[in-house]
What does this fold into?
Amino acid sequence: VSIHEIRSRGTHYIVFLDLHIVFDPPNIPLDKAHDIANQLNEKIKEETIKRGTPKDIVIDIVSHLEPKSAP
It folds into this structure.
């Protein structure tokens, strides 16, 4: 799994993220890809809360799931 095209927007207190998650192998079942994306999104949210700063708390993440392209 790799991530690219990360974009953020928001205010001084909340952040919204958009990111693309690339899956290799490209034929991973969609339900498994969604499970991995949800786990990754929750980990990102947890890490921003752990830092203890009321600023820059990620509250929403939109993940775009992509298969790895053939070379």
